[in-house]
Amino acid sequence: MNNKIYRLNLGGELLAHPDFLDGSYNSVNAMLEANKVPAIVLIDGLTPEDDNVVKAMFNAVCQLRRSEIFYAAPIYLTKSMGKLDVFTDGVGITKEEVLPNASKIIFRMEKLSMATNAVNDDLRLLTFLYCREDGYALSPLALTVSPWIYEYPAAFFIGGFAEQSMQSAYHFGLVSDKYPSKTPLQSSAEWVSSLAAQGFLVEAGLVDRIRLCPHCHTGSMNYIDSCPACGNIDFSKKKMIHCFTCAHVAAEEDFRNGMLLMCPRCNVTLRHIGSDYDRPVEAYSCNSCGERFIEPEVKADCLNCRRKSATEDLEVRQLYNLAITAKGKRAVQLGVIDVEFSLFDSNHNVLPLYFYQVADWLLQMKNRYSDEDFSLLCIKIVGLEAVENRAGMAQFKNLIDELGQRIRELVRVTDITTSTGENTFWVLLPRTPQVGGEILASRIEKLSDMVSPEAGARINMYVKCFSISAEYAGSGPVAQGLLSEYEDTMLDVR
Ligand SMILES: [Zn+2]
Ligand SMILES: [Zn+2]
Ligand SMILES: [Zn+2]
Hints:
It is built from 15 helices and 25 strands.
């Protein structure tokens, strides 16, 4: 195992002992030029009190996470930088403090093609997660400098949001009516939630809930109260008086008559609270339109785009810890994120629910017209993990491509396919009786011999043909239930 440790010297007091270092560099550029293989990085020479050093450390992590080689590498600080520690893998000075975790990361990195996975930011982030221990999750971090309130530290750097933010005017505190931001900035939180929506990440605990501007999706908001009638923010709290004689309600100042309180409408002098008058709850009076109101209207004024929204119109965002899914891991292993691990192209493949509906409809047809038969194939692929481990990633990917292509050659344009679980696929064959389905099943099953790599690892495909008996036709939608029963019987083939 190759556990090289490099020091990045930021100029302050050096804490890491030179004996266990494999190199020391004064800049990230120098480190990147000298090394084409990822290693453990110790950021040393830190002075947390010095703003320039804090900035340099931030920039260094940013540059490393954006580099082709070190984007997923273990990065440690030799001294705590307070809140900034979460942007790295931790704090440590000795080999013992750093190696247990860092060597695991390096070990996982060595099994991947880091260069292949550097092609896009999605893959880089997933690779970063993949290389960390099981159960590692991206956690949202509240950042006052972020217009989105929360950022996900690793994603913040890997996706280049840190660079973007540093250049953005927000960090100079510039909030302007005249020059509201028009650039469609993006946040790391938006990015990771889109990866979660695509199934690459999964929620692992709710952390917080925030409200964002529905127009520009940022979260720096001034909640301002205003007159519900005219919207003006200039109103004041008024003591109100309610005359019992004529029921007139007005501000106390309107009743003042020297030392007395006198109703401006009926001219009765009000002496005793409770019998002559009382003070109702109404408490505000608009200085612009004169409207009286109990509760001012609260609007959220977006400091980024300066548009005002009713609080109920604000966008609600839930912030979760996010962990990598099996689908995310597979993307990392294959070095491909846009290709679903799927045997079928999207022309044939449908969502399971639609697949069940079509099967139920065909069942009705079969019940009505005796010559309308159809059958279903269930394909289960076993042994993929073993191939992956033994034959290596590149070969594994070739194998999947090859298999997919050959199965597609056997599937007709009128056939419909779906995937109901990891490594489980269904094909619906219209106008095909059980006998015809079984012939196709055995053809597909034989494909595993043709595509299995010679190196001892082989994949097995179990293909079974089912048909639904016309007797079920009277019992409503049955396909979903029956198919999952069939799937369970297929589990036994393992
Ligand atoms: Zn009155
Ligand atoms: Zn008003
Ligand atoms: Zn806005």
